[in-house]
Each structure stands twice: as C-alpha cells, then as structure tokens.
C-alpha cells in the first residue's frame, strides 16, 4: 500500500502540472478531494470548479444517477427500497420507542439523498440560524446565511425577492396539482385558526397552512447532481469517481493529504487520491461520522476500540438529531385519493398526463401540504411541522399504498432535545455504523409530540374536511389520552430522514464541537466537513435546503472569497 507523505503529494502535483490529465489513476492528485457527491458535495463541485485553475476529484460510493425513477418524482417510492441506490441503514433499538429499530434510508448515488428525497424546499426560521451564531459561530446568523440560500435558488412564481433568489440554478416551484381533499384540508386548518401561509420560507412568518414549495420543474426532480454536479463536469476540471467508497483519510501528521478508497463493485481494489489543498468530507451525517472515526478523528476511546491511531480526539458522532415523525391516517369517502390513482387505468391516465406536461401524481412531492403551528400560544414561531397528503401507506409499510381511499396527516417536533450518536463498529468500510437516535427519550419531546398528534387528529376532523372524512384508521378512535398517544407514537413513529449534527460546528471552547465556523476540523489542517453533519442544532424544517446553503457558504470560505453581504432590513 502507498505510504502517504508530502513528498508523494509533491510528486503528483508536479506530474499534474506537466499536463497530467484527469483520468483515474492510483495515487493521482487534485486541488480538492471531496468525499460524497450529495446535496453538499454537488454544490461544492460546482462552486470550486468555477475557478479556472482549480481541479476537484469527487468520490461517490454509489453508482451514477441514471435510473429513471430518480428523475420521475413518483419514483421516490420505489427508490427508497433499492439497495443499489440507497444506504439501507437500521437504527439501533431505541428505549424511547419500545426497543424498535427504524429503517433509515439515505441516498447512495450522484446527488446523494437529493436524488431520492421528498423534494420539499423548506429553509426554517430566522431563530434557527441566529441560534447557530449565538453558539459562537461567526457569520452564521440569519442575515449572514440568507444570501447563500438565495444564491443557488431560481424561484419560479410569486415571491419576495429580498428573501428568494431568481438567478440561481435550483428551480423552486409551486404545487400545480389541485385535489379537493387538499383544498378541504387547508380550509379546515383555517377553521381551526391557522392562517394561510404560502411563503413559509420567509424566515419570520412560518406559522400557517398551504402548499409546499418544491424542487420539481417541468415534471422532473431537480437533484443537486442534476443542477450543480453535472454542469460542473463540463468544465473538465471535475473528476467524478462513482463506485468509489472512501475507506480512510490519509494524514501526514495532523495534515490531511488524501483519501484511500475501495472499488465498491469488487470490494477489493484499493486506490488513493491526494489533495494538494484540502480534503472535504461531505458523506452525509452517518457516513461522515463513520469515515472520520475510521480515520482516527473521533473520541480517543473509540479510535482505540477500532484499533486506529488517534489523529484528533474529538466528539465526532455525538450530538446526532433527527425529526421523529408520526402519521395519523383516516379513511376517505366520496372521492378518489392517490391510493386508487396509483393503479391500473387510472395510473395509465396519470402517466399520459405527465407525458403531456400536465399536472399528475407522477410529479408530486410525497407530502403536498404543509402546516406549521405552536403548542403554546405564547410562542413567536411554531414548534411543530405537519404534512398532509390525500394518500396513505399500509400500517408498518412505508411505500406501500393502502387498498382503500386514505389521507395522512403527519407531524413532528421542530427542535428535538433527544440526542443520539453514530459510531463506527470496525474499520471495515462495508460495515454499517451504529446509529442510535434515542428518539423520544427526552420528556420535552414527548410532551410536544403528544400535543402535535392531538392537533393532527383535529385537523382531520374539521367541518371543511367532513364531506371526505370517513373514519379514523390509524390510530383507532380509542386512542384518546396523553399516555395512549405517547404509546402510539412509540409504536408507529419513524424517521423524517433529517439526520444532522455528528460533526457539530462550534468554537474550540465548545467541548461538543468538531469543526470551527470555517468548517475546518479542530486541531487538524487540510480537512473540512461540509454537509448536514455540521449543523449545531436542528433547523425548524426539512434539511436539504440548509445543507445546500452550508455548502454555498463553505465554498466561499474554501476559495478564500469574502462572505456575501448580509441581507439586513427584513422584518423580524
Ligand atoms: C428519503 C429522504 C427524504 C427526504 N426528504 C427531504 C425533503 O423533502 N426536503 C428536504 O429538505 N430534505 C429532505 N431529506 C433530507 C435531505 O435530503 C438531506 O438533509 C440532505 O440530502 C443531506 O445532504 P448531505 O450532503 O449531508 O448528504 P447526502 O445528500 O446524503 O449525500 C452524501 C453522499 O455521500 C456518499 N457517501 C457516503 N459515504 C461515502 C463514502 N465512504 N465514500 C464515498 N461516498 C460516500 C453517499 O452515497 C451520498 O451520495 C430527505 C432525505 C431522505 C433520505
């Protein structure tokens, strides 16, 4: 095996300067090596290769994103179970959820989870990012990060241009599929006092009900790979290596100099790639923690347990958070729901509509309607997120639609206190890490979620929805008390797939921090982490857009550019 050394890097650099090409070879070198081509990795590839003198190699464990079900939004439901394109993680048994394990799928192809996710565009609240800044992270308050949300965005439709971008590459569109049950749900929520809220992404006025903004345009999913990574390839300065599973970060002392990776198909061939400037880990919250730990960057006790030399003793893998989501299902009458539209002739009709560019169930986000609300009247902003769709899954089988007409109202708590961890169990890159979210172990999370479930049921029992409401299916009507609701949540709740926090950003004085506010790993050189794992706390939203925002901001730091001007003067 090659011994990593600065001499070796210098040798490779010289070879490259003499006109070396970007063909894959063992031990070649680039300015930057990015591990993971997901939401963050794709944005980085685009921005870093905008500099004509810069070369980037991205290692992606999964295959290319050619499968048609990646690109047709409804293919989501199939891709979730496809082990070629997804990581089929299972959480460790949880005390707060009756010892259950929860399947925790993540994307494993170009675009990462953005190639299989729910395509909802949701940023969160001003307070989320102000909290990041208050934790000692300079330049991460709402006014600082807003320009980075805007830079990548191409908002199509009505919007406040102080808050939304028009010039970026990522199309953000409005729902175009109007179904009477969705409309009745929205009217019913207004009956209960929720205002109609079309731009929950304003940062300041999230409360209310309306349709989700989405990353679907002209019938197709717009993943981070489609929007950012593939165009960057055209520069000729980006080398995309698929089926390349990073196994270890290579160090020269405390400086990261490259990555050793294994061919994911034969599981044997090992190669190295060197970074002249930096190694950037963007492998997603679970795999980023695992890769760092396997490389000796993690708690010293864990490095010792894994049998790797301690490179940095840091709390990598701790502070894991996720949204724990519970579904409330009712049977529908007097109208067809997506459950029936997804079969036989009806489906053929929907396919025809999609092919003609008309609104169709093939081009929908799995959750069509949002609601954000507070569990206490005194709160300025909501502490709950809810979703609604005229569709329902069979009990215990996410992805398999019910045989009867159904509708689902889901709910989760914005900022869970329950904190878990991710830990590598060996240095075998093919072995899954332990993922222990500790869902529902914090009493505060239990209280908030119980209130959320009462509200979700009430939202299905409004006058406006009555013409379509047949009966409660899940849970049955006999679940009524707080204890019964909590028991229900423990039995049926699941991940919302918003894994964050295992390489927490914070100053060196923060004993829970792994990276500083420039996303450099504390105590090391040439190594940054740029993905959802750096989030210090959970945003009040799904996590895709904030991950892209992080990568946008990080790209300026890496390129040595000044940060974008803060956007001041937006009402708080
Ligand atoms: C099913 C699902 C639905 C979701 N729905 C939404 C939604 O509707 N809206 C929203 O805002 N958010 C949603 N999310 C969350 C959002 O997609 C993630 O927060 C976001 O993609 C995280 O980006 P990332 O760059 O951190 O990781 P990812 O996008 O997951 O990318 C990580 C990449 O690194 C690769 N990788 C991992 N390990 C290695 C290794 N050792 N070597 C090489 N490559 C490696 C992976 O294969 C992957 O391609 C959803 C997520 C899932 C899974």
What is the gist of this entry?
By secondary structure, the protein is an alpha+beta fold. Helices cover 26% and strands 23% of the residues. It folds into 2 domains: 1-88 and 106-167 and 221-315 and 505-562, 3-Layer(bba) Sandwich (FAD/NAD(P)-binding domain); 176-211 and 324-413 and 440-492, 2-Layer Sandwich (Cholesterol Oxidase, domain 2).
Describe this structure in words.
Helix content is 26%, strand content 23%. The chain is of the alpha+beta class and 572 residues long. Strand 14 (255-263) and strand 15 form a beta hairpin. It binds flavin-adenine dinucleotide (FAD). Flavin-adenine dinucleotide (FAD) binds next to helix 2, strand 4, strand 13, helix 9 and helix 15.
Q: What oligomeric state do these chains adopt?
A: single chain
The fourth-level CATH homologous superfamily of the largest domain is FAD/NAD(P)-binding domain
**CA-based shape:** globular
Radius of gyration: 23 Å
CATH class of the largest domain: Alpha Beta
Number of spatially distinct domains: 2
By DSSP, the count of extended strands is: 28
State the helicity in percent bands: 25-40%
Low-confidence stretches: 1-6, 8-23
**Structural class by secondary-structure content:** alpha+beta
Residue-averaged pLDDT: 94
Topology of this structure?
Layout: H1 6-17, E1 28-35, H2 39-48, E2 56-59, H3 68-71, H4 76-79, E3 86-90, E4 103-107, E5 120-121, H5 126-134, H6 142-152, E6 153-155, E7 170-174, H7 180-191, E8 208-211, E9 213-214, E10 216-217, E11 220-221, H8 224-233, E12 238-241, E13 244-252, E14 255-263, E15 270-281, H9 285-294, E16 297-298, H10 300-306, E17 312-313, E18 324-332, H11 338-341, H12 344-355, E19 369-373, E20 384-389, E21 393-394, E22 397-401, E23 406-413, E24 421-423, E25 434-436, H13 443-460, E26 469-474, H14 482-492, E27 494-495, E28 527-529, H15 544-559
Parallel strand pairs: 1-2, 1-15, 2-12, 6-7, 15-28, 16-17
Antiparallel strand pairs: 3-4, 5-9, 7-9, 8-19, 10-11, 13-14, 14-15, 18-23, 18-26, 18-27, 19-20, 20-23, 21-22, 24-25
This protein binds flavin-adenine dinucleotide.
The site of flavin-adenine dinucleotide (FAD) has 41 residues, from helix 2, strand 4, strand 13, helix 9 and helix 15.
């Amino acid at each position: 095996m090659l011994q990593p050394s600065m001499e070796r890097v210098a040798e490779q650099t010289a070879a490259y300067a003499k006109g070396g090409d970007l063909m894959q070879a063992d031990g070649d070198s680039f300015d930057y090596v990015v591990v993971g081509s997901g939401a963050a990795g794709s944005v980085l590839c685009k921005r870093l290769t905008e500099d004509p003198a810069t070369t980037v190699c991205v290692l992606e464990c999964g295959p290319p994103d050619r499968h048609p079900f990646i690109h047709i939004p409804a293919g989501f439901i199939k891709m979730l179970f496809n082990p070629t394109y997804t990581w089929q993680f299972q959480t460790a048994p949880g005390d707060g959820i009756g010892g259950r394990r929860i399947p925790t799928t993540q994307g494993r192809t170009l675009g990462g989870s953005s190639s299989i996710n729910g395509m909802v565009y949701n940023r969160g609240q001003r307070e989320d990012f102000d909290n990041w800044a208050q934790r000692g992270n300079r330049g991460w308050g709402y006014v600082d990060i807003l320009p980075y949300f805007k830079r990548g965005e191409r908002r199509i439709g009505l919007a406040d241009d102080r808050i939304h971008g028009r010039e970026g590459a990522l199309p953000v569109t409005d729902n175009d599929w109007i179904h009477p049950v969705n409309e009745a749900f929205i009217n019913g929520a207004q009956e209960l006092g929720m205002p109609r809220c079309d731009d929950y992404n304003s940062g300041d006025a999230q409360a209310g009900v309306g349709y989700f903004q989405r990353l679907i345009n002209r019938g197709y999913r717009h993943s981070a790979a489609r929007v950012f990574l593939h165009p960057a390839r055209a520069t000729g300065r980006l080398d995309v290596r698929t089926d390349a599973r990073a196994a270890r970060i290579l160090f020269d002392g405390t400086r990261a100099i490259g990555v050793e990776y294994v061919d994911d198909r034969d599981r044997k061939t090992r190669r190295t790639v060197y970074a002249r400037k930096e190694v950037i880990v963007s492998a997603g919250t679970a795999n980023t923690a695992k890769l760092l730990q396997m490389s000796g960057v993690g708690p010293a006790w864990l490095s010792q347990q894994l049998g790797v030399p301690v490179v940095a003793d840091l709390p990598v893998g701790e502070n894991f958070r996720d949204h724990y989501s519970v579904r409330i299902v009712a049977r529908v009458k007097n109208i067809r729901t997506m459950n029936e539209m997804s079969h036989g002739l009806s489906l053929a009709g929907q396919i025809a509509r999609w092919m003609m560019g008309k609104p169709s169930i093939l081009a929908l986000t799995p959750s069509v309607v949002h609601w954000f609300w507070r569990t206490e009247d005194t709160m300025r902003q909501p502490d709950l997120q809810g979703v609604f769709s005229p569709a329902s899954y069979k009990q215990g089988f996410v992805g398999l639609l019910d045989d009867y007409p159904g509708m689902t109202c889901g709910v989760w708590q914005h900022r869970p206190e329950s904190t878990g961890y991710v830990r590598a169990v060996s240095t075998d890159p093919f072995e899954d890490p332990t993922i222990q979210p500790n869902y529902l172990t914090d009493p505060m999370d239990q209280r908030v979620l119980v209130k959320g479930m009462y509200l979700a049921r009430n939202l299905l029992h409004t006058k406006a929805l009555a013409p379509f409401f047949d009966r409660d299916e899940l849970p049955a009507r006999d679940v009524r008390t707080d204890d019964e609701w909590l028991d229900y949540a423990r039995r049926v709740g699941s991940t919302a797939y918003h894994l964050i926090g295992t390489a927490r950003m914070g100053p060196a004085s923060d004993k829970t921090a792994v990276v500083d506010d420039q996303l450099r790993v504390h105590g090391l050189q040439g190594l940054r982490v740029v993905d959802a794992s750096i989030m210090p706390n959970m945003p009040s939203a799904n996590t895709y857009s904030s991950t892209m925002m992080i990568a946008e901001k990080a790209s300026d730091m890496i390129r040595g550019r000044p940060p974008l001007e803060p956007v001041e003067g937006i009402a708080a």
